[in-house]
Each structure stands twice: as C-alpha cells, then as structure tokens.
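cron nightly-structures :: item 1 of 1
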Amino acid sequence: MKKPLLFLVVSLLFIAIISCSSTEPSEDLPRIAIAGVAIESSTFSPAVTHEEAFKARRGDEVFSYYPFVDEGSEKRQRAQWFPTLRGHSIPGGIVTREAYESLVTETLERLEENLPYDGLFFDIHGAMSVQGLDDPEGDFIKRVREVVGTETLISTSMDLHGNVSQRLAEHTDLITCYRMAPHEDALESKERAVENLLTRLENGEGKPEYKAWIPVPILLPGEKTSTRVDPAKTLYEKVEPAANEEGVIDAAIWVGYAWADEPRNHAVVMVTGDDQQKVTETAEMLAQSFWDVRNEFEFIAPTATLEESLEMAINSDVQPFIISDMGDNPTAGGAGDVTWTIRQILDRQEFQSEDGPSLIYASIPGPEFIEVAVEAGVGGTVSEYAGAEVDDRYSPPILLEGEITAIEHGDEDAETEVVVKIGSANVIVTKKRKPYHHESDFTNLGLNPRETDIVVVKIGYLVPELYDMRADWIMALTPGGVDQDLHRLEYERINRPMFPLDEFEEEPDLSARLIPASDEL
C-alpha cells in the first residue's frame, strides 16, 4: 500500500474513533435513570383519570421531553442515560388505582433492567391524587428507592403547585420546582434538577448534608399566586439568590395544590445544601416571607360573576375581551365539560343573531355531537347535545343547533375539533377535552381571536400567548371542580388551621425540620 493511501486510511480510522468517542458516553461516566408520572388531579371533580390519559413515553422516547439532553447535547455526553417511563396527563380528576399501579409497576420493572444507577432524575408534578391512596408521589418515590437502593442520588423536579410531603422529602436527595407561574421556566427548572444531579455526581459530593423542610399552613389557588404580580413576584424573586448562597444547592417554594382534600395539601419550603446554618436560615427566611405576605394575595386579574363579565365584554370597544371560565378549567383539574357558562351565553339575546357581538367559546366536549357533525360535514346544520357527561352538577347537557364551519382531526388532546356557528357565537366542540392556550389552536379552525369581540376560555390565569393577545380580561367566578372560592369546597382531611380558611390564634411554627438522608428504606 502506498504511503499516501496508508496515511489516508489511518487518518479516517482516527477520525472515526474520535467521532465515536464524542457521541457515545464513556462507561466511566455516571449512570443516570429517568422516570416520572405527572398530573394534578382534583378530588372535588367527579372526573376520573385512566391510564391512557398519561400518553406515556418509554425508553429513548422519553428524551423528547427534554431538549437539554438531546443526542449530541453537552449534558447527554456527561452521563450514561437510562430513560424508563415518563407519563404526563393534562390535569383532571382522581387517578384510578389500576392506572397508577400499572404505570408505577412498569417504571419499577424498567428500572430493574439496568441496575445499578448513580443517579435518578425523578420528574413529577406533585399533585396527583389516586383512589384509595394518600400521597401518591411519596409512595412512588419510596417504591423507586426499594428498587434502586439508598446509594442512588435522586434529583426531583416539580411544579410549584405540587405538594411535598415529608415522605417525599425523605426519599429524594435533591429537589427543585418552578419559580414562575405561568410556568414559563418549566424546562429551565427540569434542566436545573439535572444539572444539580450531574454536578454532585461529577464532583463526588453525593447526597447533600442537609435538607430543610417547612410546611407552611397556606392553601391558595394559582390564580391568586401568579408570579407576574406582587406579592408572589417579589416572594419568588428571593428564591434564586437564596439558592445561590454558598453552602446551598437549591431552594424552592411550593404554593401547593388547592383542589385536593389530603393532609399533604399546603405550601412548603425546602432547601438543600451542605452548610447546616445556611440551609436552615434560608428555609426559615423563605417560609416566614411567605407567611408575612399571606394577606396580600389577590386574584391576578379582576374577577366578577359571569353575568357581570359578559356585560363588561359586550359593552367593551376593544378586541379581544377575554373571559376566563375559571371554575371548570381543565388545566387545573376541572372536568372541562360543565355547560353552565355556555348555556348562560347562548341564552342571552345579544348572541342570538349573526349581527351580535362576535364570540368564541373554547370549548365543550361532545363526542356524540362530533359524530353527527362529521357526518354532516362543513356547511351542514347540526342539532345535538354536548357536555355534562362527566360533571352535570351545575347544568345538564346542552343542545347546540347551528352550522358546522370547521372540522379538524388529529389533535393530540381533542382528537377531533368542530366549530358550530350559533348566532354570533362560534362554539368549539371537541371529542375529548382540550385546553386552548395558543393562537394556533384557534387559527387552525379558521377562527381569528384577535379580531373577535369576546373570547371565552376554560382557563384561570392566562398563559403567555393569550395574555399577550388580550385587549381586556376578566376572570369569571364560575362553578366547577376547581372552584376559586375555596370556602365553598367541603374540605374534610386537610390539616387545620389553614389560611385563608381559618383564623390563627397563634403564629404557626415555621422552624426548619431537618430531614435525614434516605439511608434506610
């Protein structure tokens, strides 16, 4: 073989070796598993959540949740990754025990396949309720511990509307949650949980020396605790500086989840780190800061009855005037099929002719309506009932009569969407419930929300796209499984006293509880 050719062959082999080494993590790198099941579920809703709602991803499919560990990414190269199962459902009713056991059992079986692990990224919401089981996430992580052992470093990522029980605190080593509501920092928070885990493993630091956990007797809806405005804005601005203190790994404030009646439902502060004094003082400072501003929390937007909200919207001269139909918000755990609001709208004379104020209602599930509408086709006229198949406590199924103006198939949540024109209202009917958060959710159906007089959405505080789109906005105090008036909910099992439901005769104990490391199962 001639020297130039030999040189070329050797060079290509060398490049191939270097290329392989740069894309395939070394066996000397830490072994990290990924697992999690996430939902927030209202126990005040008659809805029940089944396994298929979680749309579980398995194996390498799990990476699609986390762009920061995409193939070729910096974090992907820093460990050997073993994704197991990650299920995520839009909020809903209580989860069946069968669904929970199926998802957890499969996760544990998948974890067993590649033991041992140096670390585990545990990605949960924290507000899952399960039939016949208190504290599902605490139960889940304890069962994970029984499989992976006490040496594995577990880093938990959560929604700030989750609940951190003492059992969950005991069995996790690192923990963090979102610092923004709406959750514009969701991926950033998950990445922080992974970075904390990688850093501890790479530096050989292992488990933090101290975990401070403080239950705070406050239970508030997310619509009163948005970080867009004070006091939550200023409160949460204290978290990052606190987490960056020397000797602290991370710090977090959980608002908790207001629409489940379990002892773990309340606010929590948790701080992890290696300096006992810093960890303790930081946790107590954040907890006291939360308690000190408890009376300052107000709804993020003006609230009114539905009747008052509609009057404001009809008399407004801006587009769009957005009304939040809060009580049946499917992104907080509502059934999403309460017909009370749409019935009030369609009963009003203003919307009964095409010349009335233009209105979009998003949305109401109606599988039977969808079937008839698809058969009739665009341009066809339909008369069929929709809604109240799950939650009929406030209003029965509603008869919708009008022209079908759009039919779309293939949405991952709704499956099929139909727009029916009734007078001046465009009512979106879905096969399965779907939250409408993005402008494209409307434009895909031929609707232009920016040039519509009134847009009524089953939501609480507006997510970023709707928030930026609004010309005016009111939150309507409507009934449903996530009623914003907590005094109307019949709590029986939460810890008492609880703000704002009770008066406090003395200040609560907000001293830090130091949680031991999970060295024993």
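cron nightly-structures :: done
The chain has two domains: 24-297, 306-476.
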